[in-house]
Amino acid sequence: MFDIMVVEDDPHSRRLMCAVLERYGYHPLLAVDGQDALEQLEKKHVDLIILDIMMPRMDGYEFTQILRESGNTLPILMISAKQTPVDKRKGFLIGTDDYMTKPVDEEEMVLRVGALLRRSRIVSERKLTVGNTVLYYDSLAVRCDGKAPTAPGAMELPQKEFLLLFKLLSYPNKIFTRRQLMDELWDMESESDERTVDVHISRLRDRFRDNKDFDIITVRGLGYKAVFLR
Question: What is the number of other CB atoms lying within 10 angstroms of the CB of residue 54?
Answer without folding.
Answer: 14
